[in-house]
Amino acid sequence: MKPSIVVYKKQPADLQQRLEQHFAITQFDDITEENRAQVLDALQNAEGLLGSGGRVDKDLLDHAPRLRAVSTSSVGYDNFDVAELTRREIPLMHTPTALTDTVADTVMALVLATARRVVNLAERVKAGEWTENVGPDWFSIDVHHKTMGIVGMGRIGLALAQRAHFGFDMPILYNARSQHTEAEERFGARKCELDELLEKSDFVCVLLPMTQQTFHLIGKEQLAKMKSSAVLVSAGRGPVIDEPALIEALKDGTIYGAGMDVFEKEPLPKDSPLLSLPNVVALPHVGSATHQTRYDMAACAVDNLIAALNGDVKQFCVNPEVLRK
Ligand SMILES: NC(=O)C1=CN([C@@H]2O[C@H](COP(=O)(O)OP(=O)(O)OC[C@H]3O[C@@H](n4cnc5c(N)ncnc54)[C@H](OP(=O)(O)O)[C@@H]3O)[C@@H](O)[C@H]2O)C=CC1
Ligand SMILES: O=CC(=O)O
């Protein structure tokens, strides 16, 4: 008999077929408050769980006594209770390499769009405001040769450093827990304390995972250290930035602007003050959302689940200590 799995994300047709060759599938589009009872019911029998986005907590795991592997179609895993999975000796698999370049492209797009006011100016053109040669009211700030500050020099940080160095000839400062020699040797990046990075960077790109240590790492005090001409780009996880503090900093000119792909609450509420600020470019958490990359992530997640349920994990395990037991 094929092992039973619960899938809570719609799969491309060929990947769905691949899953069906290996498993008996109970399919959901997501895990929501509305369907949680049905998901919990399906989990009673499930040996595998595949999806992304929904919260996988202790209560959910308590309803999955036969679960042997979990696979997420994302690199971030802050919505999973990793400690609880590890205690139960369940490997959690993720998709770290498939999306790196696409997310770095998105971050660079936010840098350019915010600095050069691409969205704001395009909206003014569409509104019929371009009636004569433009003056300073339409001007923006340069990106090339300015200092790029990267908070979180992981896979995406490194890919951003590559773009900033070769594409825009930018000096690069970075902050991370460890030293990243590849970024230093290939892209001339220099490691520094967060305060120095905030004070000296023209663009502060925050690419951190959401953890207890990173929650609200960038708040009022940190924003006050930034140049008034600087741009903050947030593309790691929303709660890393204290959003009310950022809104104040954007309103009172503490910083020039913000490019954001992630928010404290997603989807961003319609009444968020961020939506009415002309110096904000807001994207709907689409860092990795190209057709190709989302397919590659889904394929990686399917491969990961098959490998994990076959006891054949070679890479991409968040809690590899469970494999050694
Ligand atoms: N907007 C989007 O659509 C997407 C967002 N993401 C988010 O981006 C995050 C980063 O992805 P990725 O680059 O692949 O991850 P990595 O794990 O490769 O990089 C994370 C980086 O964060 C650093 N870091 C972690 N905690 C701290 C801390 N307390 N202080 C300073 N630095 C810290 C790490 O430092 P060190 O190297 O020293 O360990 C590392 O450099 C993901 O966790 C996810 O949340 C990812 C994909 C898409
Ligand atoms: O936010 C997206 C991810 O893959 O993590």
Automatic annotation (TrEMBL):
UniProt-recorded name of the protein? Glyoxylate/hydroxypyruvate reductase B
| Domain D-isomer specific 2-hydroxyacid dehydrogenase NAD-binding: start-end pairs | 108-287
Single GO term (MF): NAD binding
Keywords of this entry: Cytoplasm, NAD, NADP, Oxidoreductase, Pyruvate
Cited Pfam families: 2-Hacid_dh, 2-Hacid_dh_C
Give yes or no: UniProt keyword Transcription regulation.
Answer: no
Give the EC class as a word.
oxidoreductase
Name where it's found. Cytoplasm
Q: Which GO terms describe its cellular component?
A: cytosol; plasma membrane
Q: Its Enzyme Commission number?
A: 1.1.1.79, 1.1.1.81
Q: Which family is this protein grouped under? A: Belongs to the D-isomer specific 2-hydroxyacid dehydrogenase family. GhrB subfamily.
Q: How does it assemble?
A: Homodimer.
Q: Which residues form the active site?
A: 237, 266, 285
Q: Which residues form a coiled coil?
A: none
* Role, per record: Catalyzes the NADPH-dependent reduction of glyoxylate and hydroxypyruvate into glycolate and glycerate, respectively.
Note whether Cell membrane occurs among the keywords.
no
- Organism for this UniProt entry: Rahnella contaminans
InterPro entries in UniProt = D-isomer_2-hydroxyacid_DH (IPR050223), D-isomer_2_OHA_DH_cat_dom (IPR006139), D-isomer_DH_NAD-bd (IPR006140), Glyo/OHPyrv_Rdtase_B (IPR023756), NAD(P)-bd_dom_sf (IPR036291)
Q: Which reaction does it catalyse?
A: (R)-glycerate + NADP(+) = 3-hydroxypyruvate + NADPH + H(+); glycolate + NADP(+) = glyoxylate + NADPH + H(+); (R)-glycerate + NAD(+) = 3-hydroxypyruvate + NADH + H(+)
Q: Which residues form the D-isomer specific 2-hydroxyacid dehydrogenase catalytic domain?
A: 5-319
